[in-house]
Amino acid sequence: MKKTQKKLGNKGFSLVELIVVIAIMAVLVGVLAPTLIKNIEKSRESKDAQNCEQIKSSAEIALQNEKAYAAVVPDSGTADLVTITGSGCTVNSNTDFKSEFDGQMDTSKTELTSKKYKKVTGGIKVQVNSLGQVSIVGLPNS
């Protein structure tokens, strides 16, 4: 019978104790949220930079094919191979280069996600010059 009776001193938490705990949690969230948001944006910038480099590398590999090389490398000046924007990635419509590039990398879901990279007017372009050198044009300033 004694085991089923409640102890008199066990009444739970008071309202003041609960309010203090909630206030402490609110302060911690207020202090940590800006840091978390900043780190998320840095990770997006890092992902965008890595995507641009990966696309450049894939374009260089695709140009190893003689047909693709002959089709896109201009006699003078530069030619756009790939354009990356906030809404997606567009590959040069030349059949030989596009088929070779698509074999290297699937860009169907590649897009710019960070604020810094999305601000670039006209998107970021991967270009090739008349010597066959591939470069990235339009990267935001660091």
Q: How would you classify the helix and strand content by structural class?
A: alpha+beta
**Percentage of residues assigned to helices:** 40-55%
Distance between the termini: 75 Å
Q: How many strands in all?
A: 4
Sheet with the most strands: spatial strand order = 2-1-3-4
The number of distinct helices, counting runs of at least 4 residues, comes to: 4
Query: What would you call the shape?
Result: elongated
Number of separate domains: 1
What is the subunit organization of this protein? single chain
**What is the CA-atom radius of gyration, in angstroms?**
28 Å
Question: Overview of this structure, please?
Answer:
This protein is α+β, with helices and mostly antiparallel strands. The chain has one domain (15-137). It has helices at residues 15-62, 66-72, 95-104, 115-118; strands spanning 78-85, 88-91, 124-129, 134-137. It is elongated and about 90 Å long. The protein starts with 14 loop residues before the first helix and ends in a 5-residue tail after the last strand. The model has no long low-confidence stretch (mean pLDDT 89).
In summary, what is this structure?
By secondary structure, the chain is an alpha+beta fold.
Which helices and strands occur, and which strands form pairs?
Elements: H1 15-62, H2 66-72, E1 78-85, E2 88-91, H3 95-104, H4 115-118, E3 124-129, E4 134-137
Antiparallel strand pairs: 1-2, 1-3, 3-4
Helix pairs in contact: 1-3, 2-3
Keywords:
single chain; 142 residues; alpha+beta; 15% strand; elongated
